[in-house]
Amino acid sequence: MSAVMITRKVRKWEKLPGKNTFCCDGRVMMARQKGVFYLTMFLIVGTCSLFFAFECPYLAVHLSPAIPVFAIILFLFVMAMLLRTSFSDPGVLPRALPEEANFIEMEIEAANGNVPAGQRPPPRIRNVQINNQIVKLKYCYTCKIFRPPRASHCSICDNCVDRFDHHCPWVGNCVGKRNYRYFYLFTLTLSLLTIYIFAFDIVHVVMRSVDKGFLNTLKETPGTVLEVLVCFFTLWSVVGLTGFHTYLISLNQTTNEDVSAAFENNACFNHFVLRDLK
Fold first, then answer.
1. How many whole angstroms separate alpha carbon 227 and alpha carbon 52?
2. 3-class SS at 10?
């Protein structure tokens, strides 16, 4: 009786040479540096838990039962967008296979000719025409590919990402073409949630202070003080980040292009700005 050898098929994510970690049979993709992402989760879940424990019971009785319901909806949407941003493929471009890399090297050498010793070789670029305009594609020495327009190599994840925006440690992933809409919705809903909690923290303190005094109210609801501090110091950065990305969307730019001033002429990519969210 002959033994049948079953060869296990190797999935693409198992041999991806970048610095990412994968879970759930490759369905979850994250950067290896996840410490700040866990801090983000802790701040959101912790602050909302204090709000549900200290504010919601009082406000639901004395103001409206819709307050905790709307807070739960906002919280769940924020968490969904955070996890979708963190666990999604941001648009990683596959590296060239050894045969493809050798062929590209031969093409480049043939185009550049023999470079004299001691002389720097010309930059590796390829000109392509998009919407009747010449666009220069840059060569990535790590991935051995000519990157598409607006793509860039992330040094943290060690991957080329299509329409690379930035690497965000707060979500533990790169932000690119495939998860940018989730990132923007995360910052937008997180801004609304932070404002919502901060506003009703103040309302809660004011309403209870009428009957029991300000100091007694703070003693009875210590979680409220912590919520106010967290919301106050995070509100400006979160709302500012949302406003910044709203501005970038209106200009059809990415953070990487804005910071590096590399997006000098975007005429060949001009589309309706809401397509950046797709």
1. 11
2. coil
pLDDT of residue 177: 94
Both tokens of residue 143? 């991935």
Structure tokens at 243: 């406003």
Angular region, 88: left φ>0, alpha ψ -120 to 50, beta rest: beta
d(CA 48, CA 72): 9
Whether this model's pTM surpasses 0.85: no
Of 181, 166, 167, residue with least CA distance to 258: 166
- CB contact set of 212 (below 8 Å; sequence gap of 6+): 220
As a whole number of Å, the end-to-end CA separation of the chain is: 56
Tell which residue, 163, 137, 134, has the closest CA to residue 151.
Answer: 163
Q: Which among 48, 56, 168, 231 is annotated as catalytic?
A: 168
Q: How many beta carbons lie within 10 A of that of residue 13, not counting itself?
A: 16
The single-letter DSSP state of residue 53 is I
Q: How far is Cα of residue 75 from the mean position of the Cα atoms in its chain?
A: 18
Task: Please confirm, yes or no, whether 168 is among the known catalytic residues.
Answer: yes
Identify the sign of the CA torsion 157, 162, 165, 168.
negative
pLDDT digits (tens, 9 = 90+) for 6-37: 555 655 555 566 666 766 655 677 777 788 99
Written as one letter, the residue type at 6 is I
